[in-house]
Structure formats: C-alpha cells, structure tokens
Amino acid sequence: QVRLVESGGGLVQTGGSLTLSCAASGRLFHSYTIAWFRQILGEERKFVAAIGYAGGTHYADSVKGRFNISRDNAKQMVYLQMNDLKPEDTAVYYCAPSMVKKAVTTWGRGTQVTVSS
Q1: Does the pLDDT of residue 82 top 90, yes or no?
Q2: What is the mean pLDDT of residues 18-26?
C-alpha cells in the first residue's frame, strides 16, 4: 500500500495562502485517489478535498473556491493550495489514500496549519 507523508504547514494570517505537500512512496500511487482531511483538536477528522487518478476533484463545501488540490504522478506528489485562509481552517491536515475515512487504516503525523486572526 502507498505510504504518505505530509508537509508544508505553518502559521499564516487571515487571508493568506499556504501550500501543503503529500509525498508518496510505494507502488501504484497513480492508481489511488488521494484525499486531504483535517482535524481540529477535540473534533472528528473531516474530509477537505480529494483527487482521483485521472485528475477528477472533490471538495468540501467549506473550502470550495478557496482550496485547490493537484497531483504529479511522476513525482508521486499531491498538493493542496489553500487561499483566502480563515481562522476556522486552523487544524492538523492529513493526506490519505482514500476519500472514505473509514477505509483509511494508517494515518500519517499530519501537518499543522494555524491561521491567525
């Protein structure tokens, strides 16, 4: 199974932008739908965005028009470009080899995104 490592988080002001990266290792990366989830302390992990092997995308309503997910199969990378960030986007962000949370058996360490008001 593909293994994923998140990076790129940080502190940004409201209205700012940040790009998260998800680096994959393992075979058949190109055949996986890769998703981003986020978790606020004390709350459930929630779906943010996903991109299929052919490039089709899905977004949570809360990030539509602000976030953009993309992938580079040759480099085995998935990116989450986040624009117009809001304090409510503050969370730990995780990438996963499925957009169905229950189907994910192993999670990475995530990357912290903090948006200051």
Answers
A1: yes
A2: 95
Side-chain half-sphere exposure of 43, counting CA atoms within 13 A:
13
- pLDDT for the residue 29: 85
Q: Using the Cα atoms of residue 40, residue 112, residue 32 and residue 73 in order, give the sign of their dihedral.
A: positive
Tokens 């790129």 belong to: 8
Q: How many CB atoms lie within 10 A of CB 6?
A: 23
- Residue 7 CB neighbour total at 10 angstroms: 16
pLDDT at 26: 85
Give the whole-angstrom CA distance, residue 101 versus residue 91. Answer: 17
Dihedrals φ, ψ of 102, to 5°? -65, -20
Closest CA to 110 of 47, 21, 18: 21
The helix/strand/coil state of 4 is strand
Q: Please give the Cα distance from 15 to 82 (Å, whole number).
A: 10
